[in-house]
Design brief:
GntR_C, Tscrpt_reg_HTH_GntR, 13 helices, mainly alpha, 3-stranded antiparallel beta sheet, 3 domains, single chain, elongated, two-stranded antiparallel ribbon, GntR family transcriptional regulator, Arc Repressor Mutant, subunit A, WH-like_DNA-bd_sf, 307 residues, Four Helix Bundle (Hemerythrin (Met), subunit A)
Length: 307
């Protein structure tokens, strides 16, 4: 149980859960957090309490079938989100979904009053959003929503997909050297976890999708291209990439997850065989399918005129 849960007691945290509550976009929980007046700091903090099968993107974890206790965690170490990070995540999702119009001003004082927090966390949230290229901060004027079009989201996917495809080809070419062998062992482990998740009918789409991102990251690291890895990290940290994945966008059904698993197995087999052309082609195929699914989802959810 994390320290915040210990402070809140049983009402704020359920003992024995394995993963952290994910911010539920589009639900009443999101609506009350974003728009409800008079929200207190405690109301915001409850978004990090532990629940079965749910987690937040920051401090991401997922449950892997067949393991127990803390061993079921996969992913980064979990830490409670700061108030600033939660405010940034909430408004980031609204910007990507089109609920906030480009050029709209985000009032620092009004938001601080709305959530019952000081202006400091709100100001820090704006800086986080600026780093993610979702907000522009103009001195002495405030924070304004930047345009995030479907075309710009597609551009981000295309850049990442090109890098991942390049990495897969490079990984395949160096599969027989010592470092390449160590990386394929790790990739096989990631793939086995994906198989277990595919066999679990209760696996959450976001958990499955995150495992896919871990597989792609392992491929990027297996390429041996340090610059590519640094660019990949920048695309994660300095864009709205993580904001896109606050809601389920891909692998929503058991059938879709089975199809995605088969595609990943083909990519890993090509890397293992040292077939750089097949590795590049197959990984690009399913990454582009994911891109198209996300764009279709956002196309349907965005207000007319903001697409």
């Amino acid at each position: 149980m994390d320290s915040q849960c210990q402070q809140r007691g049983p009402a704020g945290c359920r003992t024995g859960r394995t993963v952290v509550r994910r911010y539920l976009v589009g639900s009443a929980r999101r609506d009350s957090f974003v728009t409800g007046p008079g929200k207190s700091k405690a109301d915001i903090v409850t978004m990090t309490r532990r629940e079965p099968g749910e987690r937040h993107e920051i401090g991401y974890a997922a449950s892997v079938p067949g393991l127990s206790g803390n061993a079921r965690h996969i992913g980064r170490n979990i830490r409670p989100l700061t108030i600033a990070e939660q405010v940034a995540d909430a408004f980031g999702v609204m910007i990507v979904e089109g609920s906030l119009a480009p050029g709209e001003r985000l009032g620092e004082e009004k938001l601080a009053e709305m959530y019952g927090v000081s202006r400091g966390p709100v100001r820090e949230a704006f800086r986080i959003l600026e780093k993610r290229r979702l907000v522009e901060i103009i001195p002495r004027r405030g924070a304004f929503v930047r345009p995030v079009t479907l075309a710009s989201i597609e551009d981000l996917f295309n850049v990442r997909n090109a890098l991942a495809s390049m990495a897969a080809a490079s990984f395949a070419r160096r599969i027989h050297d010592q470092e390449g062998h160590a990386r394929i062992v790790k990739l096989d482990r990631r793939l086995e976890q994906l198989r277990e998740m595919t066999a679990d009918p209760d696996c959450l789409p976001l958990d499955f999708t995150f495992q896919l991102t871990r597989i792609v990251y392992t491929v990027v690291m297996g390429s041996g291209n340090q610059l590519l890895g640094e660019i990949w990290a920048d695309l994660n940290n300095d864009t709205f990439w993580t904001t896109i994945w606050k809601t389920p966008q891909d692998s929503l059904t058991v059938e879709e997850r089975r199809r995605r698993l088969a595609q990943v197995e083909h990519s890993v087999a090509a890397i293992r065989d040292g077939d750089s052309d097949a590795a590049e082609t197959t990984i690009r195929l399913w990454l582009e399918e994911i891109r198209d699914n996300v764009l279709a989802n956002l196309q349907n959810s965005r207000p007319t005129g903001m697409r």
